[in-house]
């Protein structure tokens, strides 16, 4: 198909005449009759109220107005070609952008997924934003972000259930986490609720799902936690816990992966929690967004079948899945 097929016919005809300096040769190159070509260019001149071609000599040439007009026409044609190339680049994932909303917890848990996506599609810019789940849900529903990764499969508002879809990636165990200088470091046996009440904790604040999850656990089991510090930064929590005096609640994968931290099991156990992909329901998904969702599904399947201590790409994480076949 002619690459200029979507360009206005009269302008394509004018370009051909300017190139061949002849109506006859231009018509032959375009496989149209000369009267048809002449009529189209005449209508273009009338619409612009200016003469574009000097027909008085042996060869046809552009007038000054014609030179100026074709300069802009060629620029427009170049922009259309650039747009066509850009569309193809988006489709083949050689360029694009993906906006991701994540909680502080999921930042750590899905870093291998982000690294794998960048390795596969280096031309796509990943723009990651850290925020509470309620803001992720709003961002996806209002199209401020393309995909969210949250720490729970339960929406913060029933009103959002008609706007967004959730897809569980994997299930994560939660434990107490302490620094290597803490008395419970390398503790092999679980500790109970009374012992937990004696610990000074540094936790995410109540805007985050992990904190609400822990608060509900304490309420259900009659535990009164001693909260010494609240923050919105998981990095701050990890660094403070490494110092050895304060403890925290973390997904087991993070506690095991961070140098200087030890996980300590609790009795009763904290319920496992889902790490969830959030997308806008029924919305257009860009090629980059579809590719990320597909990779996330593949990655979560690999992760859920990783045995304890085993390292697999693209998911070098310890097993945290509660499926029978993964135990």
Q: Would you tell me the structural class of the helices and strands?
A: alpha/beta
Radius of gyration, taken over Cα atoms and rounded to an integer in Å: 31 Å
Fourth CATH level, the homologous superfamily of the largest domain: Periplasmic binding protein-like II
Largest sheet: 5 strands, mixed
Descriptive labels:
single chain, 327 residues, alpha/beta, Arc Repressor Mutant, subunit A, five-stranded mixed beta sheet, three-stranded antiparallel beta sheet, disordered C terminus
Structure description:
This protein is 42% helix and 21% strand. The chain starts with 8 loop residues before the first helix and ends in a 23-residue tail after the last helix. The radius of gyration is 31 Å and the shape is rod-shaped. The strands form 5 sheets. It has a 5-stranded mixed sheet with strand order 4-3-5-14-6, with helices on both faces. The protein has 327 residues and is of the alpha/beta class. It folds into 3 domains: 9-91, Arc Repressor Mutant, subunit A (Orthogonal Bundle), CATH 1.10.10; 96-171 and 273-326, Periplasmic binding protein-like II (D-Maltodextrin-Binding Protein, domain 2); 174-267, D-Maltodextrin-Binding Protein, domain 2 (3-Layer(aba) Sandwich), CATH 3.40.190. The chain contains 12 helices and 14 strands. Helix 1 (9-20) crosses helix 3 (34-48) and helix 2 packs across helix 3.
Present the secondary structure layout:
Blueprint lengths: L8 H12 L2 H8 L3 H15 L4 E2 L6 E2 L1 H28 L4 E7 L1 H6 L1 H10 L3 E7 L2 H9 L5 E4 L13 E9 L1 E6 L11 E2 H5 L2 E5 L4 H12 L5 E6 L2 H9 L5 E4 H6 L3 E4 L1 E2 L5 E8 L6 H18 L23
Parallel strand pairs: 3-4, 3-5, 8-13, 9-10
Antiparallel strand pairs: 1-2, 5-14, 6-14, 7-11, 7-12
